[in-house]
Structure formats: structure tokens, C-alpha cells
Design goal:
heterodimer; A: 338 residues; alpha+beta; 2 domains; four-stranded antiparallel beta sheet; extended; B: alpha+beta; nine-stranded mixed beta sheet; 40 helices; elongated; membrane (chain A); transmembrane helix (chain A); Cell cycle control protein (chain A); CDC50/LEM3_fam (chain A)
Chain lengths: 338, 1178
């Protein structure tokens, strides 16, 4: 009995209770830190060089077409009263723009990242749930219902403000203008196209939109977004999906088309080109800018000078630091026990 | 609990006293009226029942009361306020669950803890309330639960029972209505105390007579003064004054008394025990206070950021937003930018609230709880003798243990064991008891003497030899020890002797004599029976010349069977030597040398002498003694003179040396603690000599000290003068000898001087002087003064104080110090109950402070630094993002990430570090006490460190925002889709954040146990798996409106650019920290770094901590510490078990006087201040 009590009171003799768990006790010794810095430095410089060189090889062509300057061909379109305005921007390439070439549109000073803007949509409606067609979420206010109290589909600020400029690219050759085929397939995220956004199963699609109205700014309802391809309509329209994936920063680019077909699949050959813009989207009111960007990509995506330079700088700093530390270490060796 | 349950017992109408009319129950009790055996009458006053409720909740009230209490915490209310803000749609920048999940978690953890605590309180309440006692219900004894005992009931108590309530002693089985109680649980004193009933009731005797007793007591209302009681008993026609001497208080134990009866005066919460156990002050650690200040600062910082962003929002809305309305119209209620800014302010308060993380408080509590368990579990703080483990009774003070600067220690029972052992003696110029061979076994007395005490230890066989050969001086020496004392013996069965000694040193001396063949068997008021070497001899006891503080000696005069009269005297050497026969100068010199030697070893010494008296001398002296004894005035002085007269011309027999056994390891512990720069003050109720003696033996005082100053003035002027001269001397010496060496000084100050020195006008001088000394000993201090000294240091030094003690007289000091430590395993538990930590031995203090305290402090500081860092790094990203999103309170991260960041992704690794981290192993912290210093200087976490860690956090947030910003704004996937969309940006930043803070915790963790590995890697794994799950198709299809991020994780984390960005951000965040730490380690290493380094390179040079042996110094080692007056008690025969009726008549002759005399003497010699528990003898 007394023995039992003895053991009952006595704390357990385990490594855990006695705080003697086996442990690894690392220390920032010179043997680890200095070589570590050298390794990080060298690795970063290596990556930096690779990134820089890759980035240098990427071609980018940017054209602002906002039409602020009066001599710009798009100046005429900045007047909000002009409807269906087209303007053309000409440019020439003095060498082959290697393919595949991607066409982006870019907006500046445009706040897709504004909190209320981002919240102004109805995700359930966009999955094709008909219940939300008639009763859009209140988060869409003031684009939940129109003046006649009819539900707006798709509701909300993001959908309402969808970018609707159009671009056509022509190569100017002696025989005239040759249209460069722009491919709009697969420019949206796979998950957006296949999961996040679904059309209602109603056939034809148009019927699902009965008793709803199109977003106020839209020229055509959602089921007629793409007149050329019936399958590319409704909520799974590629341009719509690209627009709905809102940008994190006020200056952004969004993918518009790829040039992957025909003879231009290898790239845009040197020569003169004309970009015909269907100018519909007003940005002048808020001092925005619009541009179109041609770019090709590498394994690391588009042109990205910053990353390569940052890696080079940080890598070199690490190497410098390791030398400094080596000097300090040599001078003030860790004092041995006195 | 069935306290409210009224027992409906028909109660006989007791005779009413027509003189007393009934008062209506008063709001505030001004006096208490209790009539015995009349429940009906007593119930009108609605006195508290004897049911004790220390619990706070019951099943029904738990939820509301507990929630109410929790929301009194500012932090919880703050988060509730945030929650309400989040429910306003215009403001809600984050869904409500981001706050309610952590809040609910925090509230429920606290609630569970409170519920467990309360459950144990219920259990102990029940156990106490259901104890059985015998109550006289109508006229016969019935068993009743304690909680059903009422005021006015008469209770029968039996031997060794706890007293159920505060009782008026009515009668007892012992003559004269005497009974003995032990008050250990009440005031920590383990010696027995005598209580006596008033004569009118003691005659009542047993239950038959008491059933008709209907006396009425009028007394003071309930109060917490343990040592006084005033009341009056009205019964029949007599009126008796009642004092504390008539009371049995709840918590006492009845001893050596078969049974007694008492009238319940105070019950339950009104008892003095419960009145004393008032709510303990809630102690807060300095880190707590700092943390609260910092949280307040952070809160201000939060408001500032909110204002900056709101102003930004106003400007933005005016300059940009108003133009952008075509795509983003303002809400109908928000029609101007000012209002928008106002809403934005609150929205940002919600987003940025994570800088004051709700999980901070609960994490701190969890860490402290963990540390408390480590203290409870520590086997090296387990006392195997008393089978008591250390206990952290308060879980909120652990890190303060690493910052202690002052220790206030009690002496008896704390530094010493309160066990005296007969260690050495000098007989006729010959020293016995020197230990030559430490391995020598202790002497076996059983063969020589069947009555020997088997636990007695003595190692010198020479002394036993000397007894055996019949050396007459040796025989006389032990004969004296067996005769000259006031010990009572109890012989339960033949040969099984039990000595009850007033002071443990007397017990040790009589036990020594017993083992060497001079066995004190029994005494009567007139005789002492001793078994001398097996032969029973009865001496007639002629007189006891009692001890007092001035005489410092006691003598007995006995007549042996042959008719020879002898005086045996033992006492302080200085006084005894003066009274010796002139002829023994040589022996005196030799013995004196021996005494010095003994004193040098820290032993308590007594000199022994005897004198032959002739019949005439005795007769003459007896005559003068009688005259002095019966003198009407100046009795004391006359008696002293009479004693003085006979204690002359004595022959020196020798000297004894008693070891006041120190607790194990006390000198070593004190040495280590003072190396750790902790100042130790001893506060004791003991005499100056004893205190100084212990000071030497536990190496607080050493002979190489410059000087030991003694302040014991009785008046304000003298104390002031003494203090000033001490200070001047110190000042002079320190300034004059700067070039030579700085000597340590010690201050000894007595209680009566302290009373003056603690006055407001002398406080500063005391403080200056005391703090200039290395050791301070306060002797003869009352419990209140102990607390005042602690308060003094607390008030003026801003240092962390620790008080350690074992008795009830230490309770006030334990409660007022920052940390109170109780010595457990002893009999009294008052100190333990009041303490924050308890363990069985003083030496565990070094482990508690230097190991557990140091680690706790280190861990808590590291934890806080990291915690603030990680939350700033997390939150400030929103601030930077504000400048790019129109100050719209858009979060950077996914809402689920925000919810889980503090609870799941980053909490466990830092908790593991906070609980398990060690910089150096425990052995090293004891080896290098200097490692304790950073805690005292508060170096590891202070405002500066806080700024450093939040700066690091802000830097990290800057990197975490701008690196992805710079990279992603132009980057695209390899399929050419741009990476600058919000969700990719959110996932990249969140991943980078989790990786950076994980790398940081990996750097901060110095002790990687398997648990740290599991938590760090587990948290990272958890982050990725939860993120992938949250972004999965399954969850999205279940609730499309909640999981917007579907597919983001997969798509983002497959991009090499994203990983390159994360790697870049991590390196930019971590590399400067690494470089800084490495350089700091190289250029300015801390002691702990050095120790750790040497550990690492296995240069294990053990620094032997050795203690210099101390030379002798001349001190009076006089050991005699019991109360005077017991000589008279013995000769009056009062305190003996009166089995022989023959003695009863003898005793009754003196009965009127002895108790009164005893009380008078007590009051005149050792006045105890009111309100304080009486100081413990030795």
C-alpha cells in the first residue's frame, strides 16, 4: 500500500515530464552560416542570370490606344456620344516576333480590387442556379435589379463593367491586309471554365434568361456574347471569365487572344501591321488608360525583368555578406571559455 | 449541496430568560447573541449556517456567470465589439466567423478551465461539509453533518477530531475543564495549546447536564482576529467574562483530551478560519503588466493606422472614386467621401485587429499551464522523505520566477528543519562527537540500553565507552540532562517512551541522556523518576528555577534517594561561567575553547553545571524563595534575586552542542542564489542569537564579511542613530577601501527596531542601509512586519520579490510578495494554502528559480517576441495593400486564411517553442548562476525588444507585399494568363507569409524536440492541405457563395514564378535576421550563448562550485527557546495526565493561580501585537 502511494505521488520519470526529450540544438555557428550564405548567394546569382537572360529574350510590344492625345487615331472615340467607334493603330515589326504570340488588353487606374466591387457578384447565380436568376444576391446592389425591378443576370458591378473593346489584327502586305487569326479558346482558367462558372442546363440557353434583364452596360444579353460561336456564350464565355477573374492591382493586363493558328503560329513576321479596335469601353472619365500588348512567353511566363534583377542583387548581397561575416569571424573569433 | 435544507426537528421550548428581549435581526451584526440549545431563538438572527461554499458556480449559473466574468476582461469585450462591427454589412470587411471562431475557442477553453477548478472546489466543499460531528439534539447525542450544525448547538468533540466551528468550550473530560488543541492549520504552530472552560460550565460535565444548559452568550461579531475574543456568558444568575482562552476555533485539532463539549458561537463563513481566508489578491506578473501596456499601445497604433487609411480613403474617394462611379457606384447611403472614410475606418479596424490577437492571452495561459505542469512533474523537486512533489498552485506567475531579485525567507521550518540533534559535547574538558570517519556507522544503543530511542544518531563510540566504564563526570553530565528540563514523558507501553518537549532542543538533550543510559521515565509534581543504567531512581524535585529571557538558564534542585541535595543548572555559557566555583579555571578555559569551536560550527551551545547543597543551605534558600513567591509586589524581581542567590559556586560539568538541523542543501542553495545576484533576507520570529547562528551555519553570514551590524534600539532616536551610523560606516568603508577590496556587510535588525524603522520617515534610511548590505537578518519580527518589509522593497525597489515560509506567521509575507512559496510536507498547511508554489525543501528553490523560472521567462519572452512579430507581419500587409485598392478595406488574403492563421497555421510551433524551448540544459543553469541575470534586468522582453520585433514584423510585411507586387504585376503563367489576379496574389502572399514565419520560428527554436518538428512541419502541411481543401471543387459545389477561391491554390502553386517569388521574399526576410544574429553572436555573445557554444563543442569544463570552510567566530550559541512558565506548570501538576487521583487534590490547591500567572508572564515578556498571529517559538 505504502509502495503504491509512493509511486502515486512521485512524478513519472519520463523524458517528457522531466524535460529531457532528445532534441536537436542548432546553433548559428560560422561553419553553417558563412557557407550557407555563399550557397544562397551563388544559387541566387545563378537563378538570377537564368531569369534575366530568359526575360531578355521575351519580346513585348505595348500600344496605348486610349486616345488622350488629339493626334491619336482613337481620339475621336473618346467622346462618349460616338457609338460603334472603330479606330486603327499601325505598327511595324522589324524582326520576327516569335510565336506563339499572345494579345492582352491592359487597363490602368482601374480598381477591380476595390472591396465592394469585388463583392458585387452572385457566385451561386454564376454556377447556373436558376433560383438565383430570379432572386440575385443583395451583394449585387445596385446592379441587382433594374429600374423596373427585374433581376439582372449576371448581376453585380464586375459583370456590369465587363470590358467590351474588340481587336482585329491585320498584316499589311502588298496585296492588302491579311487578317491575323486570333484564337479566343482556352484563355480562361480551367477551373473557372469547368467548375466555378456554369450555364444553366436549360436548352436553349436563352430560355433561362426569361424574365431577367441584361446588365445595364451590356450591349447584348449574356447568351449572345459571342455571336460566332454558340458554345461560347452565357457564363462560360471566355472573355467574360477573363474579366470576372478580377485583378489584384489597379494596373493590369488581361489575356485577350492567342495567335496560334496558320502561318502566324510561328510568330508575327517582320512587317507592318494594323490593329483595328472596336472602341466601346470608356475610361477617360476616371483618367484610365487602355493598351494592347503583344507578348510571347517562356517557361517562366511573360517578360519579368524585376525577378531576375532581384535575384542577382540579393545573391550578390549574400555573397558580400558572407565575406563581411568571414572577416568579422576571423577578427572576433567566438571567444573560447575563459 | 443540501445546505438550504432545513431539518424539521421538534425542538423543546427552552426556558426563556425574561430579562433579554429579542432584537429584530440587524443588517450589520453589532453583537452576537447565542442561546444554547435554543435553535428557535437563534434562528431569528439568521446567523450563517456551518455550510461552507467556496465554489463560484452551480450547474445553472455556470454559463451566465462565467460568461459575465469573462466579458469583464477587456480583451474579450473588445473582440465582442469587433464581432458586432462585423455584423454591420456596410462595415464588414471580413465575415463574422473570422472573429467568432477564435473568440468561441478562447471563451470555451477558459470556461473549461474555470469549470474544472470549480468542480474541485465543490468536491472539497462537499467533503468538509459532510464531515460528521456529534450534536446534542434534543438532549441526546446524534451524528450530524458539519453543514447542518447551527449556531447555539452543543457539540461533542473527541480526541484528534477537527473542531467543526468556533466553539465556546463548556466542559471537558479533563479536570478543570482543560483541553489541549493543536492549531497547526490555523496558525502553523505545532505545539499544543491549552484551553479552559469557564468554571461554571466545566462543572456541568457530560451530555446529560448539558442538555438542559440554556446559557446565553453575548459577544463580538465575527472577525478575523485569531488571538482574541471577547464575550460574556449569562447563565442563571452569573455573568462570566469569556476570552480567547475559552474558545476552540474551527480548524484546530483536539489533542490529549478524551472528549469535550462546546457551544457553537460562529459557524461556517463566520468562523475565524474562514474570515481569515479572505479572497487572495490576484497577482499579476510584470510581463503581464508590460503586455497590457503594449496591447494598449498596439491598440493606439491600430487606431492610428485606421485613421491614416480612412484619410486615404477620403482623399481617394474624392479624387478617384468619385470619377470611377460609372463602374463602381457609391452605395445609396454612402453619398459622400467623408462618410465613406468613416465606414472605411471601422472596416480597417476589423481587418487590422489581428495585431492584437485574441489568441495571445489564451496562448500565454496555455504556456504557463505547461510550465506549471513541468514544475509539478519535476522529480528533482520531489521530496522522497515526505513523498511530496512540488506544486505550482498558481499557474499565472511562472515567468516571474525568472526575475526574482529579493528572497525573503522564514527561518524555522524553512531554512532549518526544526529538528535539534545532540551533536557534540564537552565533558570535563574532553570533546566527544567529532566525526573522524564520515563512513562510520551510527552507534547502536539497543544492546546497551533497551530504552534507547532508535532514531537517535551519534557517531562517537568514546562517549558510550566513558559511560560504560562509569566515569563519574560523564554520569553526572547525563544525570543533569535527564533531570534538568521541563519535558513531559508518556509511556504508552513498557519501554515505549514518548517525550513531549516545549522546545525541540530540550527534547534532544533529554533524548541524548536517554540513549546514554539515563532514561527519564516519568515525573510527578514532586518527583522525577529516572532509570539510571537500568536502575530506577526516583529523585524528589524540590524546585524548578525556571527559565526566562534575562536569566537565560534554568536549574532544578533535587534530592536523590540517598538524601543528597543537588542543584543542576544549564544555560548560556556567558552567564553560567560567571557563576562557577573559582577553582575550576583550567576546565573553564578548555570548555570555553570547546564552546567557541561548537559555535563556530553553527551549533547551539549550553553549558552545564551542578552544585551540592547542604540541608541548611536548601532550607535557608527555600525560605527566601517562598517569601519571594508569595510577595505581593515585585514578585518577578524577588524570585530572580532568589534564583541568583542559589545559582552560585557551581561546578562545571561540560557543555552540549546541539545542531539546529538545517534543511538539506541550504548553504549550497543560498550560495548559488547569491551568485545569481539574488539578495536573501531572513525574517524570523526567533531570537537574535539563534537567527545570527543560523545565518552563519547557512553561510549567509561569513567570517570574511567586513562587519555584521546589529540594530536593536528600542526608541525612535536610537534606531535612527544606529541606522545612520551603520550607513555612515558603510559609506566610509566603501569609499575609503575602494582600492583595496569591497567587503560584504550584513545587517541584523530586531523587530522592535524594525517597528520604528518601518515608519514612513525612516523607511528610506532603512532601505539604503539594508540594500548596501549583502545579507539582512530581521529577528523577532511579527508576521505583520514580515509583510511590511516585503512591501517596503516592493514599493521602492521595483524588484520582483519572493517570500518563502512554512508557518501561518509567514502567510502575510507570502501573500504580499510577488511570489509566495510555501514549504509543504510539514504539519501546518496555512502557508501552503496561501502560497503560489509549494515544495517540501528549501533547496528546491534553486531549481524552481534557476531552472524553471529561467526557462519560463526565456520561453515567455521568446514567445511574445515571435507572437507580436508574426501578427504584425500578417496584418500590416493589409495596410500596404490599402494604398493600391483605394483604401477600400479589401483584405489581401482569403477569409479562411485570416480565420485560421492565428489558430492553426502558426499557433502550434510557437506554442511548442514557448513550452519546450531550452537554451542551456538545467545542469548548466545551476552551474552558471549568472545565467539568471537577464531575467532580473528584464533584458529579454521589454519595450525595446518589442519595438525590434514589431519593426521586424513590419519589414516582413513590406517585403511580403511588395515582392509579389513587383513580380506578379507583370508576370504571367506559362500558358500566358497573367498572374496578377487577386486570388493568385492572395495565395502567393499567404504562402510566402506562412513559409517566412515558419522559417523564423525554426530560427527562434533552440531546442528541437520531436514535438517541435511535428508542429512546425505539421503546421506547414496543414496550411497546404487546408488551402487545397478550401480551394477544392467539392467544397465549392456545396456552397458557391462561400468558397470563391476554387482552383486558385492548384493553379497558383504550379507556377515556377510563384515559387521563385516566395523564395525571394523568404530570403529577403530571413537573411538580414540571420546575418544580424550571427554577427551579434560573434561580436557580443551572451553568457547563455557561450555556455551553449561550449556545450556544443564539448568543452565540458566543470566549474566545481566549492564552498570555503569557515573559521570559528565567537558568538553566543545559547540555545534555549521555549516559553518560560513551564517550570511552574510542572510543579503545579497541571499539565500531567492525572491518572492518579492522589495528585488531583494537590493540583487543585494551586489551580486558581497558575494559568493566570502564565498568562501574565506571557503578556509582560512577549507582547504580541494585536491582529497578528503569535510568533512561533523557534
Amino acid at each position: 500500500m505504502s509502495k503504491e502511494e509512493n509511486t502515486a505521488n512521485r512524478p513519472d520519470n519520463t523524458a517528457f515530464t522531466q524535460q529531457r526529450l532528445p532534441a536537436w540544438q542548432p546553433m548559428l555557428s560560422a561553419g553553417i552560416v558563412i557557407p550557407g550564405f555563399v550557397i544562397i548567394g551563388v544559387a541566387f546569382i545563378g537563378i538570377g542570370v537564368a531569369l534575366f537572360v530568359t526575360s531578355q529574350n521575351i519580346q513585348v510590344l505595348e500600344k496605348d490606344y486610349t486616345g488622350i492625345e488629339t493626334n491619336s487615331s482613337c481620339f475621336k472615340c473618346t467622346n462618349p456620344r460616338v457609338k460603334n467607334c472603330n479606330c486603327t493603330i499601325n505598327f511595324s515589326l522589324d524582326k520576327l516576333f516569335e510565336g506563339p504570340v499572345f494579345v492582352y488588353y491592359g487597363l490602368s487606374n482601374y480598381f477591380q480590387n476595390y472591396r465592394k466591387y469585388g463583392a458585387s457578384k452572385d457566385a451561386a447565380q454564376l454556377t447556373g442556379d436558376l433560383a438565383y436568376f430570379t432572386e440575385p444576391s443583395t451583394s449585387c446592389v445596385p446592379y441587382q435589379r433594374d429600374a423596373k425591378n427585374k433581376p439582372i443576370v449576371p448581376c453585380g458591378s464586375i459583370a456590369n463593367s465587363m470590358f467590351n473593346d474588340t481587336f482585329k489584327l491585320f498584316q499589311i502586305v502588298n496585296s492588302g491586309n491579311v487578317a491575323v487569326p486570333l484564337d479566343g479558346k482556352g484563355i480562361a482558367w480551367w477551373t473557372d471554365y469547368n467548375i466555378k462558372y456554369r450555364n444553366p442546363t436549360t436548352n436553349p440557353l436563352k430560355n433561362a434568361f426569361n424574365d431577367t434583364v441584361k446588365p445595364i452596360f451590356w450591349p447584348r444579353p449574356a447568351y449572345e456574347l459571342d455571336t460566332t460561336n454558340a458554345a461560347n456564350n452565357g457564363f462560360i464565355n471566355q472573355d467574360f471569365l477573363v474579366w470576372m477573374r478580377r485583378s489584384a492591382l489597379p494596373n493590369f493586363r488581361k489575356l485577350y487572344r492567342r495567335i496560334t493558328e496558320g502561318e502566324y503560329a510561328k510568330g508575327l513576321p517582320a512587317g507592318d501591321y494594323a490593329l483595328v479596335i472596336g472602341y466601346n469601353y470608356p475610361v477617360k472619365a476616371f483618367d484610365g488608360r487602355k493598351k494592347v500588348v503583344f507578348s510571347n512567353v517562356s517557361w517562366m511566363g511573360g517578360k519579368n525583368q524585376f525577378l531576375g534583377i532581384a535575384y542577382l542583387v540579393i545573391g550578390s548581397l549574400c555573397v558580400v555578406m558572407s565575406i563581411v561575416m568571414l572577416i568579422v569571424y576571423a577578427k572576433f573569433k567566438f571567444p573560447d571559455e575563459e | 449541496i443540501h445546505c438550504r435544507h432545513e431539518r424539521m426537528i421538534p425542538w423543546p421550548q427552552a426556558a426563556h430568560n425574561p430579562n433579554l428581549h429579542l432584537d429584530p435581526p440587524l443588517k450589520k451584526e453589532e453583537e452576537r447573541r447565542v442561546r444554547a440549545n435554543d435553535r428557535e431563538y437563534n434562528e431569528r438572527f439568521q446567523y450563517a449556517s456551518n455550510c461552507i461554499v467556496t465554489s463560484k458556480y452551480n450547474v445553472l449559473t455556470f454559463l451566465p456567470v462565467n460568461l459575465f466574468e469573462q466579458f469583464q476582461e477587456v480583451a474579450n469585450t473588445y473582440f465582442l465589439f469587433l464581432l458586432i462591427l462585423q455584423l454591420i454589412p456596410q462595415i464588414s470587411s471580413l465575415p463574422w466567423f473570422t472573429t467568432i471562431v477564435p473568440l468561441a475557442l478562447v471563451l470555451s477553453i477558459t470556461a473549461v478551465k474555470d469549470a474544472t477548478d470549480d468542480y474541485f472546489r465543490h468536491k472539497s466543499d462537499n467533503q468538509v461539509n459532510n464531515r460528521q460531528s456529534q450534536v446534542l439534539i434534543p438532549g441526546s447525542l446524534q451524528n450530524e453533518k458539519w453543514m447542518n450544525v447551527r449556531v447555539g448547538d452543543i457539540i461533542k468533540l473527541e480526541n484528534n477530531q477537527f473542531v467543526a466551528a468556533d466553539l465556546l468550550l463548556l466542559s471537558s473530560s479533563e479536570p478543570h475543564g482543560l483541553c489541549y488543541i493543536e492549531t497547526a492549520e490555523l496558525d502553523g504552530e505545532t505545539n499544543m495549546k491549552v484551553r479552559q472552560s469557564v468554571p461554571v460550565t466545566s462543572a456541568l460535565g457530560d451530555s446529560n447536564n448539558l442538555a438542559t444548559f440554556d446559557g446565553e452568550v453575548v459577544c463580538e461579531p465575527p472577525n478575523n482576529k485569531l488571538d482574541r475574543f471577547s464575550g460574556t456568558l449569562y447563565w442563571r444568575d452569573c455573568k462570566c467574562v469569556l476570552t480567547n482562552q475559552n474558545m476552540l476555533l474551527r480548524g484546530c485539532v483536539l489533542r490529549n483530551t478524551e472528549a469535550c463539549y462546546g457551544l457553537v458561537i460562529f459557524a461556517g463563513p463566520d468562523t475565524k478560519l474562514m474570515q481569515n481566508s479572505g479572497r487572495t489578491k490576484f497577482k499579476r506578473t510584470s510581463i503581464d503588466c508590460l503586455m497590457n501596456t503594449l496591447v494598449l499601445w498596439i491598440f493606439c497604433f491600430l487606431v492610428c493606422m485606421g485613421v491614416i487609411l480612412a484619410v486615404g480613403n477620403a482623399v481617394w474617394e474624392k479624387e478617384v472614386g468619385s470619377l470611377f462611379q460609372s463602374y463602381l457606384p457609391w452605395d445609396p447611403p454612402v453619398d459622400n467621401f467623408m462618410f465613406s472614410a468613416f465606414l472605411s475606418f471601422w472596416s480597417y479596424i476589423i481587418i487590422l485587429n489581428t495585431v492584437v490577437p485574441i489568441s495571445l492571452y489564451v496562448s500565454v495561459e496555455v504556456i504557463r499551464l505547461g510550465h506549471s505542469y513541468f514544475i509539478n512533474w519535476d522529480r528533482q523537486m520531489f521530496c522522497s522523505q515526505c513523498l511530496t512533489a512540488a506544486e505550482a498552485r498558481t499557474t499565472t506567475l511562472n515567468e516571474e520566477l525568472g526575475q526574482v531579485e529579493y528572497i525573503f525567507s522564514d527561518k524555522t521550518g524553512t531554512l532549518t528543519q526544526n529538528i535539534m540533534s545532540f551533536n557534540k559535547c564537552s565533558i570535563n574538558g574532553q570533546v566527544y562527537g567529532e566525526i573522524t570517519d564520515p563512513l562510520e556507522p551510527k552507534l547502536d544503543f539497543t544492546a546497551f540500553n533497551p530504552l534507547a530511542d532508535p532514531e537517535f544518531c551519534f557517531y562517537d563510540a568514546g562517549l558510550l565507552e566513558s559511560v560504560k566504564v562509569g566515569e563519574p563526570r560523564t554520569h553526572d553530565f547525563f544525570r543533569l540532562l535527564s533531570l534538568c528540563h521541563t519535558v513531559m514523558s508518556e509511556e504508552k507501553s513498557e519501554g515505549e517512551l514518548l517525550y513531549k518537549a516545549q522546545s525541540p532542543d530540550e527534547g534532544a538533550l533529554v533524548t541524548a541522556a536517554r540513549n546514554f543510559g539515563f532514561v527519564f521515565r516519568s515525573r510527578t509534581p514532586g518527583t522525577i523518576t529516572v532509570s539510571e543504567l537500568g536502575r530506577p531512581v526516583t529523585y524528589s524535585l524540590l524546585a524548578i528555577l525556571d527559565f526566562n529571557n534575562i536569566r537565560k538558564r534554568m536549574s532544578v534542585i533535587v534530592r536523590d534517594p540517598q538524601g543528597r541535595i543537588r542543584l543542576y543548572c544549564k544555560g548560556a555559557d556567558t552567564l553560567l561561567m560567571e557563576r562557577l566555583h573559582a577553582g575550576s579555571q583550567d576546565l573553564m578555559n578548555v570548555t570555553s575553547d570547546h564552546l567557541n569551536e561548537f559555535a563556530g560550527d553553527g551549533l547551539r551551545t549550553l553549558a552545564l553545571a551542578s552544585r551540592e547543597l547542604t540541608e541548611e543551605q536548601w532550607e535557608d534558600w527555600a525560605e527566601s524563595h517562598r517569601a519571594a513567591d508569595t510577595a505581593a509586589d515585585l514578585r518577578e524581581e524577588r524570585l530572580a534575586a532568589a534564583y541568583e542567590q542559589i545559582e552560585q559556586h557551581m561546578t562545571l560539568l561540560g557543555a552540549t552542542a546541539i545542531e539546529d538541523k538545517l534543511q538539506e542543501g541550504v548553504p549550497e542553495t543560498i550560495a548559488i542564489l547569491s551568485l545569481a545576484n539574488i539578495k536573501i533576507w531572513v525574517l524570523t520570529g526567533d531570537k537574535q542569537e539563534t537567527a545570527v547562528n543560523i545565518g552563519y551555519s547557512c553561510k549567509m553570514l561569513t567570517d570574511d564579511m567586513g562587519e555584521v551590524f546589529i540594530v536593536n534600539g528600542h526608541t525612535v532616536q536610537s534606531v535612527r542613530q544606529e541606522l545612520r551610523s551603520v550607513y555612515l560606516t558603510l559609506y566610509f568603508i566603501v569609499h575609503a577601501c575602494l582600492t583595496l577590496w569591497i567587503t560584504a556587510f550584513a545587517l541584523v535588525i530586531s523587530g522592535h527596531s524594525l517597528a520604528h524603522a518601518l515608519e514612513a520617515d525612516m523607511e528610506a534610511e532603512l532601505l539604503m542601509t539594508a540594500c548596501a548590505c549583502k545579507a539582512v537578518i530581521c529577528c523577532r519580527v511579527t508576521p505583520m512586519q514580515k509583510a511590511l518589509v516585503v512591501e517596503l522593497i516592493k514599493k521602492h525597489k521595483k524588484a520582483v520579490t519572493l517570500a518563502i515560509g512554512d508557518g501561518a506567521n509567514d502567510v502575510s509575507m507570502i501573500k504580499s510578495a510577488h511570489i509566495g512559496v510555501g514549504i509543504s510536507g510539514q504539519e501546518g498547511i496555512q502557508a501552503v494554502l496561501a502560497s503560489d508554489y509549494s515544495f517540501a525543501q528549501f533547496r528546491f528553490l534553486q531549481r524552481l528559480l534557476l531552472v524553471h523560472g529561467r526557462w519560463s521567462y526565456l520561453r515567455m519572452c521568446r514567445f511574445l517576441c515571435y507572437f507580436f512579430y508574426k501578427n504584425f507581419a500578417f496584418t500590416m500587409v493589409h495596410f500596404w495593400f490599402g494604398f493600391f485598392c483605394g483604401f477600400s478595406a479589401q483584405t489581401v488574403y482569403d477569409q479562411y486564411f485570416i480565420t485560421l492563421y492565428n489558430i492553426l497555421y502558426t499557433s502550434l510551433p510557437v506554442l511548442a517553442m514557448g513550452i519546450f524551448d531550452q537554451d542551456v540544459p538545467d545542469r548548466r543553469s545551476l552551474e552558471y548562476p549568472k545565467l539568471y541575470e537577464p531575467g532580473q534586468l528584464n533584458l529579454l522582453f521589454n519595450k525595446r525588444e518589442f519595438f525590434i520585433c514589431i519593426s521586424q514584423g513590419i519589414y516582413t510585411s513590406l517585403v511580403l507585399f511588395f515582392v509579389p507586387y513587383a513580380v506578379l504585376s507583370h508576370a504571367s503563367q506559362d500558358t500566358a494568363e497573367p498572374l496578377a489576379d487577386y486570388q493568385t496574389f492572395a495565395v502567393t502572399t499567404a504562402t510566402a507569409l506562412v513559409i517566412v514565419v515558419s522559417v523564423q520560428i525554426a530560427l527562434d527554436t533552440g531546442y528541437w524536440t520531436i514535438i517541435n518538428h511535428v508542429f512546425v512541419w505539421g503546421s506547414l502541411g496543414l496550411f497546404f492541405s487546408i488551402m487545397l481543401a478550401m480551394h477544392s471543387q467539392t467544397l465549392f459545389s456545396s456552397s458557391p457563395n462561400q468558397f470563391h477561391f476554387v482552383g486558385s491554390a492548384q493553379s497558383t502553386l504550379l507556377q515556377p514564378v510563384v515559387w521563385l517569388t516566395i523564395a525571394l521574399a523568404t530570403v529577403i526576410c530571413i537573411v538580414p535576421v540571420l546575418a544580424f544574429r550571427f554577427l551579434k553572436l560573434d561580436l557580443k555573445p551572451q553568457l547563455s550563448d557561450t555556455v551553449r557554444y561550449t556545450q556544443l563543442v564539448r568543452q565540458k569544463k566543470r566549474k566545481a562550485v566549492c564552498f570555503r570552510a569557515r573559521g570559528g567566530s565567537r558568538r553566543s550559541g545559547y540555545a534555549f527557546a521555549h516559553q518560560e512558565g513551564f517550570g511552574e506548570l510542572i510543579t503545579s501538576g497541571k499539565n500531567m495526565r492525572l491518572s492518579s487521583l492522589a495528585l488531583a487534590s494537590f493540583a487543585s490547591r494551586h489551580s486558581s493561580s497558575w494559568i493566570d500567572t502564565l498568562r501574565k508572564k506571557k503578556h509582560s515578556h512577549a507582547p504580541t501585537p494585536p491582529g497578528a498571529a503569535s510568533a512561533k517559538p523557534l
